[in-house]
Amino acid sequence: MNLTDLKTKYDRKTTLGETTALLRLDNVHKNYVSDGQVVRALDGVTLRVSAGEFIALVGRSGCGKSTLLNLAGAMDFPSSGTVWLEGAATSQLNDAGLTRVRREKVGFIFQSFQLLNTLSVIENVELPLLLAGIKATRERAQEQLEVVELGDLASRMPHQLSGGQMQRVAIARAIVHRPLLLLADEPTGNLDTATGNLILDLLRRIADERGVAIIMATHSAESTRYCDAVVKMRDGRIEEVQRS
User: Fold this and answer.
1) pLDDT by residue (tens digit) across 123-173?
2) Which of 222, 143, 211 is nearest to 180 (CA)?
3) Angle at 13 between CA 10 and CA 19, to 5 degrees
4) Cβ-contact 189, 43 below 8 angstroms
5) What is the pTM of this model?
6) For residue 29, what is the domain's CATH number?
7) Number of domains the chain is built from
8) Which DSSP letter does residue 52 get?
């Protein structure tokens, strides 16, 4: 199957609810208490994301982007409303179900890379597999390093890598367990423009070739050109959705 066929298969231009959604947020509110005051981080957010879509969340700091990512990945739960992942309400899952979702269905990419400095590159990549009790972890980890074009750096330590290389290792780690959903919080925030574009191109290919749904929080207007839809947020609400 070539790339054109893959794009047709995942129909990435029918975004936010026109196809069967992998992820759904239905009228989601999220409140926190800070210094005795209730802070509303999300205020009635409804969103649909399907397999193979690359979605950008944009808006000022504090608008709710990171909160939305945490709820989408079942790392937190709504105060009201429902988050559905592959048809299951995350707030209704038991501990075993939540662990399965986080280890098998969701991958995370962070601005600060979050590699373990005491582990080699390939050991960082295979860590999610080890935690999930999967066998033959070294082979699968090496395969993902080849995907991000770092197969020859498997034995290096993180401090021996450039920032772009560390982020590519982080991406390999995020996809090694073959997740359905990839959540990226400012993945190019610590990178120069050229290196950031390489990372965004890699994420675009992952969405197209693997059918992974990607939600990326970003401050960069340039990065949105890689995405299928741009979700503009303000004060915990979705103000506008722009489709490519």
Assistant:
1) 999 999 998 888 889 999 999 999 999 999 999 999 999 999 999 999 999
2) 211
3) 60
4) no
5) 0.89
6) 3.40.50.300
7) 1
8) T
